[in-house]
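Hi everyone, sorry if this is the wrong subforum. Our group has a chain we'd like a structural model of before ordering constructs, and none of us has done structure prediction before. Sequence below.
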Amino acid sequence: MAEENPAKESCIRIAEELPVTAVDYINQESWDSFFTSKGTDDFCEWYADWPQFRTSLKNLLSFQLAEELNHFSFPLLQPLPEEVSILVPACGASRLSEHLYDEGFTDITNVDFSKVVIEAMMKRNIRVRPEMKWRVMDITNISFPSGIFDAIVDKGGLDILMDSEHGPRSGPLSYISKVKRLLKAGGRYICLTLAEPLVLDLLFSKFRFGWKINLYTISDEASPGTTTQQTFMLVAEKSYLTVVSRIVPFMDVSFVETQGIQVDELLEALKRENTIREEYSKSTDKWYSLEELKQGVNGNIGVIESGRVIKLFLGETGISRFFYTCVLLDAPPETGPFSKQFLVLFLQKSQASQKILASEFQQRLVLQSFKAARLLIIVLDSSYYRLYSDDIREDTGYFVAELCQVGDDDTDAEFTADDGTIEGIKQNKIVHQVSSVLTGQISVEDVIYNQSQDITFRRLYFERAESLMHSEAPLSTEALRQKKEKPKKIDSHASSGVKVEHKILTTGFHKGVIAGLLLFSTHSKRTTKAGGLVKTVIIGLGPGILPMFMRNRLPSLKIEVVDLDPAVLNVASNYFGFTEDERLKVHITDAIKFVREKANSEAVHADGSKVDLLIIDVDSSDSSSGLISPEADFVEESFLLTVKDSLSDKGLFIFKLIPKHYFTSMRAPVYSKLKRVFSNLYHMYVDDGFVEIIFAVKKEAPVELEEACEALERSLRDNYNMHPWINNVLHDSKLIKPLLLPS
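Answer:
Right subforum, don't worry. Here is the predicted structure as tokens:
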């Protein structure tokens, strides 16, 4: 088809008349008005024209193994152009999709929140490019199913979302999370950007774990009307495992030497990010492929070797539909006799299965309980929820057959659609589910455990946290309190009249938080002079169980809870009995911004607005992050410095650290960053070692833990008459130890 070249004057004029403020750029009405007045034929390409990046983009979308692209792990089978599914977000009136279509890439979906431009572009292309799809959709709230696109080609969309004044705290973060969710394993996010510092900070940090990144320059032979700044193309490939890879730049020396501050800033950011990535990669656990095992890199896989534990990934393009993370265990002979020579156990990603995968001790308990000589644990995440067990067995059958060649053909596979058996759940019912733009699906569930004497517990889940339970609390209904009556079955519609018990904590993290704050508060001799209260900030409301307990049990605290999503507050209020009063307030705002304001309050209020106690109770929303908890942003050194500045002289910072089961050695880099900011660090392990609680004390003087525990016991006996929860505090406080960096 004929190449369309806009007139020079048109390019310059339209570029000058584009919305110019950040507010206009993200305002739908502004763009509708712009496209209505200009039309789709009167257009100008941003950043770069098609000839400038045609060859490189075609190679990327064709999965061609060009020499400069060998950093990527492309599949062995290269798809035909028409088989590559492509999403073009914030398409506007750009001709990018038309050029791709004419090159043979016909499976293209274009989205933009301007109905005006979508209707116009659909009308323009419906006859000549009939297979092209157009959708009116906000790119920060794309509603397509997960894992359906091979590539997402972003030509300036992310740059438009960025607000240079406030930073990437809502729209851009939501958009990036959608990008990561929508791509298939091995898929590519191809982003044309001006690479301004805020954009780089976001891209580098959010595509750090489980992504391989290349960075290219685009030829600057642009037509008049395009930007005069240098355009870059960042390509992030979704890896099958959570690995940390060095960012590879492709820039020749002559180009670097002739550029100004824009490129200098990029190179400095690239150097800084690669330093961080090298630190993480040094602590990455060793993972193997099946081919490596067959080659003997970890002994003879055809023989059961006593006590061997191997982390591996299974999957191969052309053989399986999916890739799987796995753990292979060989039992010591003395633990026999064995009822099975080889057992395959499929686990959904739940609280219980994560604990098993994070602990070799737990893995061996499972191995022993199933009486198997060899156990292969295959982890299933949300990508597999809609598949039947037979489908997954068939998909993994080839790899299982390779691993079961140990002298016995007796291979059994067991599949659990949920982890009720492992978690010991006797009965469960979904009470409420709601989907939030900011948080995703939120679920409330009532369960009865096998060992809970028929007491019902109410639990909260966030789907974004891979179905890990956030927290739970027992229900105290009149029926449950009457011991002589038979226990009633859970009624999912009986929320009225049900009361959540707020004076009991059940999760190890919450119990550890109380033990730590009381221990360190007693040591620092923090008092409430003249009726003053200990200023407490909790980041992450969840069901509100922790702040409600603290308000009820610790009257010296004045608590502020920070959460970004009003939907979470509604769930906590309606299903967990959360209420506010003069000592407990909720702020619906960005947590990093809130803490930064506390840190900057000294100039105005001296120490009056500083925080005595800061707790983070937020799990990671990033499925490709190496952390289950907290959000990766909360262990960045810049945020840790802000936390320290926000604390009072005797302030205490508490959070839980849970690496993913395949990235357990990620603790070391987090420790290093903590140590650079806080010299006085302590920690404890709860939930069978699955959860680590970090305590960072602002003051420099070390705490004599034995003396502090004795002082705490005297204080609690004098003030609380030894309520049952006090015994838990005294026990847990003795588990807190100094955090020492590994040598």
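For your construct planning: The mean pLDDT is 79. The longest helix spans residues 261-282.
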